[in-house]
Amino acid sequence: MKSFKIFNFQFSICIVMLIFMVSVSLASEFTQPLRAEASFMSVEELKPGMKGIGKTVFSGREISEFEVEIIGVLKNVYPKGDLILVRLRDELLDKTGLISGMSGSPVYIDGRLIGAIAYGWGFTEETIAGVTPIMEMLPLLNEDTRISETSWRGKVNLSQPFSFGKYTLREIVVHPYTTPEYNPSRMVLMPIATPLMVGGFTQDVMNEMEQVFKEFGLLPLQGGGGGEGASADIVPGAVVGAQLLSGDCELTALGTLTYIEGGKILAFGHPFLAAGKVDFPMTGGSIHTIVPSSFFSFKLGSSTTAFGRISRDTRVAIGGEVGEFSELIPLCIVIKSADEKKEFNYRMIEDEFWSPTLLDWCVLNSIMSTSSPREKTASSKLRIEFKDYSEPVLVQNSTIITEKWLEEITGPLKAMMDNQFRKVDVQSIDLEVELSDTPLSAVIESIRVDKLEVKPGEDINLTVILKPYGGEYTLLRTTITIPKDLPDGELTVIVCDARGSIQMTGTINPEKLKPHSFEQLVELFREIEKNNEIVVRILTPFSGVTVRGQELPSLPPSLISIMSSSRETGIESFGREIFRKIPTKWIISGHHQLQVKVKR
Predict the structure, then answer these.
(1) Among 94, 120, 141, 584, who pairs with 98 as Cys (CB 3.0-4.6 Å)?
(2) Tens digits of residue pLDDT in 196-243
(3) Which CATH number fits domain 329-436: 1.20.120, 3.10.50, 1.10.260, 3.30.1490?
(4) What pTM did the predictor assign?
(5) What is the 3 state secondary structure string of 522-571?
(6) For the domain 43-191, what is the CATH superfamily, name and number?
(7) pLDDT tens sequence across 538-597
């Protein structure tokens, strides 16, 4: 009996301990989210006058703290979005006001994170900022969160102006980023401009950049290249960068890290490029100095080695993952001139808009870094390799360096990346540009044929008289065989430059210039007339049909008639012709034509 009691007592102890362990486990399971939530403070808990701290880097990589006081909360300033107004106090901030590069600086009240400093305005006597609530940023940590390709943007007029002290807030500009004229009665609150560190670019190219970047609230600053050294501790308040370009030149936007959880970060508190789903390298950074300004002071710094990738770029923040890395496009540009040959190597993000734009800037900068402005003409070989296409695409052309000459060189990349048929993945880009300080151009002065009357099946000897710039007249000859099945009548012999020939195609056979697949687009760039070619075209009385970009020149007349009367778009009849391209060493211009009679 005694042993039974002992066993019963031990069994009871085991049951109690088991119940206790289960209780602890359940308590832990249910209180963990509560402890996580306890580290944040919602806008409903905020009251005017509450005080806390903010964190950011003012020098080097050292995180500094500054005082924050809650002014109030603007409810529903944009769809399902609030904004917290705060007053900042610090010995430095009292002198500089808000600083570009502070975007994302975390703000804490009683040790609980309320959000990221993200908005502000210039010309104020006090340092007042708008804070994006952390509760609106947190869903970005979830990779399954639905993110549209473009974020919401616009200007919001407050239904009830918000007054604090002598200030009255009437509008909030979220995007596009505009710089309003100073008007104390209007007080437009904008995202704090993001400093974009530029390294390796000439001032002329930076002037081109400013016209583009100002639309995104980015402030290009000649800060020198970075990318060296390890990043500092990845903690709230540290410098974080979103990089567009690295290598011989660099473009990195610097802001502040707001929050990190499980290797996922939130930063900026407002959009970077408002692009939705993205793939940019995430870098650290170091601040060299703070440059004061009466409108917006800014951090001048440089990036450090990439430690992750930015994958989301939305209205409330940018988000990304530590330890994951972006797939970048290697870009090699070789510039040749009479005096030298230089090679430049870059790595740029893959994006339908930014990749062609970055290519333009890299080409322009590479040329300016190599030679003087004397160069008049450029001959280019562009080689694009795609991950999911069987063979590289090679596009060659020559152009006179004028206002829009870059489009002749880099246009094919933009067309292929922005095509309407399918997404493409670029493996690499190689570009070779040969410059000449002599205008290698020639005008088609006149043309002549050895006979004005010809029998079907006979040859016509055509002579093209060229007048090169600064040179003597040059004769180019070619022989053209007249088809044996041509009926009696007149033929028009046209000799022209590439641009005139393309315009002619657009008139007589427009469907040929409308690709209906990515393969047709590639073939169009391979086969289209080049600026250094003389084009000979002889129109014939025969017809053909173009069906969705594919020429069918040899159909029976009855079938051509049926297809030409089709009620379906994309089917177009055209006049068949004799077509020939004559390559030259000059950039050709001019147009001439004459009539030849066919008589059996």
Answers:
(1) 120
(2) 999 999 988 998 898 888 878 788 888 766 656 666 678 999 999 999
(3) 3.30.1490
(4) 0.80
(5) HHHHHHCCCCCEEEEEEEEEEEEEEECCEEECCCCHHHHHHHHCCCCCCE
(6) Trypsin-like serine proteases (2.40.10.10)
(7) 887 755 555 555 655 555 555 555 555 555 545 555 557 889 999 999 999 999 999 999
